[in-house]
Dehydrogenase (Plantactinospora mayteni), 395 residues
Amino acid sequence: MTEHDTRHKVVVIGGGYAGTLAANHLRMRADVDITLVNPRPDFVERVRLHQFVAGTGDATIDYGTLLGEGIQLVVDSATRIDTAARAVRLASGRALSYDYVIYAVGSTAAVPSSVPGAAEFAFPVAEFEAARRLRARLAELPVDAPVTVVGGGLTGVETAAELAEQGRAVTLVCGGAMVSSWSAPGRRYAARWLSRHGVTVLEADVVTEVGPDAVVLADGTVRSSVLTIWATGFGVPGLAVASGLRTDTLGRLLTDETLASVDDDRVVATGDAAAPSGHPLRMSCQAAGALGAQAANTVLSHIAGTAPAVIDQALTGSCVSLGRHTAMRQLARKDDTAVNLYIGGRLGAAIKEFTCKVAVSRIRREAREPGSTAWVKGGRRLEQSASAARAVTSP
Ligand SMILES: Cc1cc2nc3c(=O)[nH]c(=O)nc-3n(C[C@H](O)[C@H](O)[C@H](O)COP(=O)(O)OP(=O)(O)OC[C@H]3O[C@@H](n4cnc5c(N)ncnc54)[C@H](O)[C@@H]3O)c2cc1C
């Protein structure tokens, strides 16, 4: 047997929080050839895209400062995982053969085709290229031009707040209670901040149509909107579906509790793109880093011929920036359900900035010391429900 035959080839698809950490974690074994495929040469800190849009922060980091020695970065997009040939097909026409794949393609901005004009006129914020277009459009507009942010979730609130602090005239259309997962005191705190900074919050209203300079609400009201930003939630890339692998209804790869695809245990999913037992964790960078380590552990167990561990991870609430000097850290139980306590103000802002920095510094630490990532365990995940079990696509 040659030395080549004894090495294990792992292709990590997607260099976000989960994939980059997983790639570094795989270096716990010296006999693994690790290739990371990502469409752009820089890491994107998606948690800072609202800052990037508002011109209050950057959102890219050179992979050279994040990846451990020996990891090969291929700047390309995977178009199909050919499980029969054990090869990842790339947009450039190249193919990468593998023993294992880590599926870490993350999530995308989602603009619904069901809302007339949304795809044509609204600007998403949740992907780097879209955020760059949005930033350029904002730069063309006078500061008092009416801006509508559609979506009362975490991304919508952060985006509305960031722009309002820059003096923009912002309306936030929530389509229901603003961040319904927060506690009532947490919601009141954020609402007061938004109101003090001039944001018009329309909680119950729904945008039903978008035009070049207006939005139409469900009750027929037409509101001037020179720029409409769409932030109603995330989608996922279609790679799993294109590869004939089963997914949940959104398109996340359906896995068992060790993150291995239910169709092929050589494909291991992580981060926003994973649906363990059809019951995914909340899409978050908080979950992604730890899931990256756990996906890499599953691959390492397969290589070692040992049984992989089931995932064990807690999510403990969210932290949303309200401009550059304030944030709201919603405290929560280990199953991510909010308690009636939050941390606001400058302390909240310090916590928020700390968590954003930690998400990146733990990747760097993993590059220096593979296996160093620790995470909060013991989070209760709901059992896979009958409806979740049905909510899968067939290959
Ligand atoms: C404005 C904003 C603020 C946020 N704030 C927070 C926060 O405060 N806290 C928090 O926990 N979460 C936050 N999030 C969510 C968080 O950013 C995501 O949940 C997180 O990035 C998921 O990490 P990931 O590694 O799974 O995927 P991603 O970070 O999305 O990385 C996936 C990577 O895979 C690449 N990729 C996709 N398809 C392919 C393909 N076919 N081939 C190769 N590569 C591919 C993508 O281009 C990307 O580089 C925020 C998101 C946004 C947009």
Notes: Residues 118-233 form a domain with the FAD/NAD(P)-binding domain fold (CATH 3.50.50.60).
